[in-house]
Design a protein that fits this description.
125 residues, alpha+beta, Structural Genomics Hypothetical 15.5 Kd Protein In mrcA-pckA Intergenic Region, Chain A, two-stranded antiparallel sheet, 7 strands, 29% helix, 20% strand
């Protein structure tokens, strides 16, 4: 595998398996969920080694450091050669606790009924 000097942001995020498809990575860039140097970037923004990328996948904001640029999509075992996860533990805990901006709902309880939804809306207002 040969390395390159810079790569498109959407391709890189797909290469290192942050997104399942390149179109999903492109869409995240267009929605402003990919941030480089404090600014949302377009899919064609070129990144290089040492760049820190923030990826917002609500409710978590992941932080990654680019340590290498692969020439093509790499296997899951080789991802650690090209990227370093800098995401703080408190961000990762948001996935485990199951709490969101809308509160806690027990797993398996299904969607709220119309009455429950109205109660939630009244409470939040």
């Amino acid at each position: 595998m040969t390395a390159v000097n810079s790569e498109r942001t959407d391709k890189y995020l797909w290469f290192v398996r942050i997104f399942k498809s390149r179109s999903a990575a492109t869409e995240a860039c267009r929605k402003g969920r990919v941030i480089v140097e404090g600014q949302p970037v377009k899919p064609a923004h070129m990144i290089s080694e040492g760049t820190i990328i923030l990826v917002r996948k609500p409710p978590v904001t992941y932080s990654y450091k680019v340590t290498g640029l692969p020439a093509s999509r790499v296997s899951a075992k080789l991802v650690s050669d090209f990227i370093t996860d800098l995401t703080p533990e408190d961000e990762k805990q948001k996935l485990i606790t199951g709490k969101t901006a809308f509160g806690y709902r027990p797993r398996g309880s299904g969607r709220p009924t119309k009455r429950e939804r109205r109660e939630i809306e009244d409470f939040l207002e």
